[in-house]
């Protein structure tokens, strides 16, 4: 990290209801013996983000009571059913004001690794204000958003789009960080996805 600059915080979006997974909140889906939200927090911390904000929505009280999230800032998104955009807005609003950027991680991408997180942070240290993990050249998650884009990101976060509008508006500025050799971008949405990830 740059001298005198605090570490980039991570924002874990974990508010989804898991409708196609039997209505269980995605944060509490078990993966490798623990809830997905614990796995996601461990990944971003191991990748270099010690400050983590977790956005909770579906069965938020149950997630708080069940998941072990020491040291995390927990942000409530009462509008979680409206899609990922509302979670991104809630998370950005909860960040410490001195953050130079934020690393946005989705709770349902268990194939993202600390190495992928570390590569995005390195891109920011090299000057990138917008960066995204890429898989064989195709943009995926996680993404990194510089502080000067926070307001625009929040304004454009609608429905399930998340940061898509921001990244599209600044496509020429987005640094794609190839991660196919260290991570897998697939999300976990259906029972078949869960079975495949659990088997892996």
TrEMBL record:
Annotated GO MF terms: nucleotidyltransferase activity
Transmembrane regions listed in the UniProt entry: none
Entry superkingdom: Bacteria
Domain MobA-like NTP transferase: 10-170
Entry keyword set: Transferase
Species of provenance: Streptomyces sp. Y1
One Pfam assignment: NTP_transf_3
Keyword hit for Transferase: yes
Name of protein: NTP transferase domain-containing protein
């Amino acid at each position: 990290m740059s001298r005198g600059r605090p570490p980039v915080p991570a924002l874990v979006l974990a508010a989804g209801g898991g409708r196609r997974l039997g209505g269980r909140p995605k944060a509490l889906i078990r993966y490798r013996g623990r809830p997905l939200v614990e796995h996601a927090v461990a990944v971003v911390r191991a990748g270099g983000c010690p400050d983590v904000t977790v956005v909770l929505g579906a069965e938020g009280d149950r997630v708080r009571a069940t998941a072990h999230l020491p040291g995390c800032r927990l942000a409530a998104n009462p509008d979680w059913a409206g899609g990922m955009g509302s979670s991104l807005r809630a998370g950005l609003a909860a960040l410490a004001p001195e953050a130079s950027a934020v690393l946005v991680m989705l709770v349902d991408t268990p194939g993202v690794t600390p190495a992928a997180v570390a590569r995005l942070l390195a891109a920011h240290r090299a000057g990138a204000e917008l960066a995204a993990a890429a898989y064989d050249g195709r943009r995926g998650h996680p993404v990194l958003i510089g502080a000067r884009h926070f307001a625009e990101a929040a304004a454009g976060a609608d429905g399930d789009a998340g940061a898509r509008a921001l990244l599209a508006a600044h496509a020429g500025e987005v640094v794609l960080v190839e991660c196919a050799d260290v991570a897998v971008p697939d999300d976990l949405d259906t029972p078949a996805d869960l079975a495949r990830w659990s088997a892996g």
